[in-house]
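The following block was generated as part of the benchmark described in Methods. Ligand: zinc ion.
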Amino acid sequence: MNDDIVIACANLVDRAGAAGFEIGHTGDDDEPAEDVQWYAFAAYRGARVISDGHRSPTAAALGLAERLLAGAMCRCTQPVTVSDSRPGCRWRLVGQRWEPSCDAAPVTVSGGGRGDMAAIQHAMAQVPPGGNRAARRAAKRRRR
Ligand SMILES: [Zn+2]
């Protein structure tokens, strides 16, 4: 098990506004390791994003991260990509975190609470094209 990939997945699930994260495997503890299938999922209200049928927790965590990133919109309003050959905002696994290549400010979801996909989509719809760069620049100025 690669701790970095599993931690990065849990962190990404949290930042994706999910209400919960679970990683586990099928079968009993006395089942041969090669028969065990690993899964990971992010829980939203009434919905789950799941990646299953993996040989290891690392593969399950990576699979879930890719599912969450694929088709997602970055806070800079570009589609997320994990491949240099595809257009969009390139995300990379940096240590124990998935990081975007943009400097747009994180999007704050108000109301609804965790796991509320409708509230998350509503918040993303309020982000100006290119993301909240002005807010991020202002934050940087304040830190100096
Ligand atoms: Zn971005």
